């Protein structure tokens, strides 16, 4: 990979991730949607994109710009559910998403705890 390819990749990731953030901010400013509802909309967008088979192509182009935000988490939930449903049947659809995303959720919990030990947060 050349330096030009690396720079192009970083710019693409930054632009797509920035567009996702800008879209969320526009929804907060221009609608009466709460941040929690916007989060759910983005999560379900990831599930929908994975379900119809489009997410893979977007991820190939945008990489971390689309996989790191909550859209990527939704796509991982859907992908895990689809894979487990194909392997063990209907009941696998319920467990697959949890199995596929368990590592990331576990890391987030441990990292959050470590940050609280270092910075001693306080309620406002």
Description:
It is a single chain. This protein has 124 residues and is mainly alpha-helical. The protein has helices at 3-30, 35-51, 55-62, 64-67, 70-88, 92-119. It has one domain. The chain is 84% helix and 0% strand. Helix 2 crosses helix 5.
Summarize this structure briefly.
The protein is mainly α and 124 residues long. It has helices at 3-30, 35-51, 55-62, 64-67, 70-88, 92-119.
Question: Strands, helices and their partners?
Answer:
Elements: H1 3-30, H2 35-51, H3 55-62, H4 64-67, H5 70-88, H6 92-119
Number of helices: 6
Order of helices and strands: HHHHHH
Helix content: over 70%
The description of the largest β-sheet is:
none
Key terms:
single chain; 124 residues; mainly alpha; 6 helices; 84% helix
């Amino acid at each position: 990979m050349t330096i030009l390819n690396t720079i192009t990749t970083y710019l693409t990731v930054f632009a797509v991730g920035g567009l996702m953030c800008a879209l969320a901010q526009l929804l907060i400013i221009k609608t009466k949607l709460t941040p929690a509802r916007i989060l759910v909309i983005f999560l379900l967008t990831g599930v929908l994109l994975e379900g119809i088979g489009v997410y893979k192509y977007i991820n190939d182009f945008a990489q971390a710009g689309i996989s790191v935000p909550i859209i990527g988490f939704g796509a991982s939930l859907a992908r895990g559910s689809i894979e487990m449903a194909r392997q063990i049947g209907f009941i696998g659809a319920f467990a697959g998403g949890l199995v596929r995303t368990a590592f990331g959720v576990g890391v987030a919990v441990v990292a959050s705890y470590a940050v609280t030990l270092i910075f001693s947060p306080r309620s406002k």
